């Protein structure tokens, strides 16, 4: 099965590669002219030819306002074949591209200062290509990530392989994000200075393109996290099944017990709520009418409910509101005592304030035997901290102790709170 899959994949790659190499040979003059001019003349190609070249990843349009240009990889290939050292990129690193952009800007400014406008136009054209190559580098890497998501995960043989592919894709994603962080637009604004052309090329257009790349990477990251959670869930289920299969192989005579007829059922099976039996009086049985009359006669006499009186109901509601308000006041008082306890510990020995360990909120609750629910207690501590002014919040160091909700759910839940007074 695996050999057949490999043969099909090899045949598909061969046909796609041969078709795209044929496109390069068929439109070689137009492509080479586009390499020399920095853009492709769309009037020399039909609409079907343009669609084929774009879908084959030979041509691309940096944005809607720009003409079609060669892909950065194709430009580097042509430059290496014709020994064009001005365009051949030895290193495709982002830092190297930024350094080349900086050098091109300096050369453009020098040509402008000397009044050599033909050289300045050539340097501006080379600078435009460098900016497009930088953006195209990220676009190709993002396309590679999507291709890995849509193909590589389907051709591996086990869940562990899929998880490893996911980790490699996440590493590539982190490298792309690190590369995007290297682009500092403040430096590019200073580099462009008062030139409107440079500012439009290095700031507005590049920022628009990189914003799109950030959005694409965010979608890739969401897909990776969703796939990883799905793989982890499948892995836990397959592990349970494999362990059950190995257990049955070791114990061939094993048969599940009849759990419904047991007095104590294991918690794993005792998940359903118990069925409550209901009874009703059998009025159709004439022999039991005397017994039914005796039962009705022995029923306790009902007394009018206090809530039937509107005045009594209002009094009860007010009493309940006052009880809730008193309980909330008691909770806030206990939380204030907790904060005062932190301050008192630090002010007793100010020189050793930093050496005092942070106090656990749940440990304090247990030590003083407070009967508040842990979740309500932690929520009130966080609410009081956020209600403090900014300058007062800086006096405390509040740390959340968090834990994942489950192995497949990365939602972080607050388990406890550590509070300490800053010096």
What structural keywords apply?
two-stranded antiparallel sheet, 14 helices, 5 strands, 65% helix, 6% strand, extended
Describe the model.
The chain is mainly alpha-helical. It has three domains: 1-86; 89-252; 318-421, no CATH class. It is built from 14 helices and five strands. The strands form two sheets. Strands 3-5-4 form a three-stranded antiparallel sheet. A two-stranded antiparallel ribbon has the order 1-2.
Question: How is the topology of this model organized?
Answer:
Elements: H1 2-26, H2 28-37, H3 47-55, E1 59-60, E2 69-70, H4 72-81, H5 94-114, H6 117-155, H7 159-181, H8 185-192, H9 196-250, H10 289-298, H11 310-348, E3 359-360, H12 361-367, H13 374-387, H14 390-393, E4 396-404, E5 412-421
Antiparallel strand pairs: 1-2, 3-5, 4-5
Helix pairs in contact: 5-6, 6-7, 6-9, 7-9, 8-9, 11-13
Strand content: 5-15%
Shape: extended
Helix-strand category: mainly alpha
Q: What is Rg? A: 37 Å
Low-confidence segments: 88-92
The helix/strand series, from N terminus to C terminus, equals HHHEEHHHHHHHHEHHHEE
Strand order of the largest sheet: 3-5-4
Report the sheet with the most strands, covering strand number, pairing sense and barrel closure.
Answer: 3 strands, antiparallel
Q: For the residues shown, what is the average pLDDT?
A: 78
The helical percent reads 55-70%
